[in-house]
Target: MICA1 monooxygenase
Amino acid sequence: YPTWKRTLARRARESQMKRFCRAQAIQRRLEEIEVTFRELEQQGIKLEKLLRDENESPAAQQTQWTNQLLYLVQKKNNLMSEESDLMIAVQELKLEEQQCQLDEKLRSYMNKEDALKTPEDEKAEQEILKQLVEVVNKRNVLIQLQEEKRLSEL
Model:
C-alpha cells in the first residue's frame, strides 16, 4: 500500500471527523436556539398580557414593557438569522461529504490504467465527474447565498 494512498486515506478520515464534529456542534446550537425560542415566546406572552391587562399602569411602566417586548422581538430575529445560517451550514456539510465520496470514487476510476478500463468504467467515471461538478455548483450557490445575506445585513 503506497504511502500516498495511506496519506489520502488518513486525510479523508480526518476531514470526515472534522465534518462530524462541526455537524454535532451545529446540532447542539440548533437545539439551544429552539430552547431559547420557547423561553422568548413565554416572556413575550407575559409581557403582552401585562400590556393588555394593566391599562391603569403608569406610562413609564408601559413604555418599559413595550421596550422589553421589542428587545425580545429583536433577539428572536437574531436567533432566526443564526438558525438560517446554521441550516445553510448543514446543507454545505452534506454537500462537502457528498463531494468527498464522489472524489474517492472518481480517484479509484482514474487510478485504473486506461488499458484495463471497460466502456462501463469510462461511462461511470464520466457520470461521477458530472455529479461532482453538480455538487461543486450547489456548494457555490450556497456560498453566494451566504455572501448575499452577509452583505444585506451590513
Summary: The two ends are 52 Å apart (CA to CA). The chain is about 90% helix and 0% strand. Residues 59-111 form the longest helix (53 residues).
